[in-house]
Amino acid sequence: MTIHDEGLAARVESLLGQPVVESSTAHGGDIGVSARVRLADGRGCFAKRYPDAPAAMAQAEAAGLDWLREVRALRIPEVVAVSQDGEALLLLEWIDEGRPAARHDEELGRGLAALHAAGAPAFGFGADGYIATLPQSNRERERWCDFYRAERLAPLADRAAGRDLLPSGLRTDLGRLFDALPDLCGPDEAPARLHGDLWAGNRITDSSGAPCLIDPAVYGGHREIDLAMMRLFGGFGGRVFDAYEDAFPLAPGARDRVGLYQLYPLLVHVNLFGAGYVGQLAEAVRRYL
Predict the structure, then answer these.
(1) Which of 172, 202, 258, 272 has its CA 20 to 30 A from that of 241?
(2) What CA–CA distance (Å, rounded) separates 202 from 174?
(3) Contact (CB, 8 A) for 77 and 34
(4) What is the fold of 6-93?
(5) Helix residue ranges, H only, 118-252
(6) What CA–CA distance (Å, rounded) separates 63 from 72?
(7) Where are the domains of the chain?
(8) This model's pTM is above 0.90
(9) Which CATH class is domain 104-286?
């Protein structure tokens, strides 16, 4: 028996009422500390704790995973338990990873289309959440352009400006872009059920070769924002997007809006990692002015 973290083992045992017989470090969870734990009843779990973060962070992730999984469009890890107080701790089913099967990209594209098509009650979500360590307001709005401005772009632009990360000219340009959003956001669509943080690191492949989605930052929003984030940092092949388009064709002009919907993840990166992303953000903003 090897227990690499006695404190974590004790917390897992407290949550589940099951002794931990083995634990080891695991990869995954960029902002958390991850481990694989084996319980006395034979189950394996992925344990993720967020040092110095409130339990609300783990609870938001658990709620998001449950919301995505209820559609059964793609494999989403099952939530085993989540802390209700103290430091954030989330326990998920353990997924053995493997190599992508021949059908992987098409399955991902079709599955994401089905997930989006399942829809959401409104633009927003029933509770606020997080994207990485940043608070994410999910206050519901009737129009997507209003939600995108007030609950996504403006709070992070204000946060970055308050830390002197945005040049004054860029701040002015962002204000002009905000005013133009009703004309830029594309045709009206019903809210899609979004993963919300869909970069390649939040897609894994299970032992059968099928795609799985992890670490969401969910809300009801415009489906093009998930697709734009997938294109921002790469890691997804063209067959994924082709399969998506075949299953759920995008509205006219979608390709021209990719940069518009990359503004939010770029603002996230400015706030998390600093001025190194400001140039890319400024270039994207200027494209729409």
Answers:
(1) 272
(2) 29
(3) no
(4) Phosphorylase Kinase; domain 1 (3.30.200)
(5) 144-147, 154-162, 168-184, 224-232, 238-247
(6) 15
(7) 6-93, 104-286
(8) yes
(9) alpha beta
Is there a catalytic annotation at residue 197?
A: yes
Q: Which residue has the tokens 């694989």?
A: 36
Burial of 266 (0-12, 13-18, 19+ CB in 10 A): buried
pLDDT tens per residue, range 16-52: 888 998 888 887 655 667 899 999 998 999 999 888 7
Of these residues, 105, 173, 197, 215, which one is catalytic?
Answer: 197
105-129 pLDDT, tens per residue?
A: 999 999 999 999 999 999 999 999 9
CA distance 130 to 136: 5
Read off the pLDDT of residues 119-169 as tens digits, 9 standing for 90 and up.
999 999 999 999 999 999 999 999 999 999 999 999 999 999 999 999 999
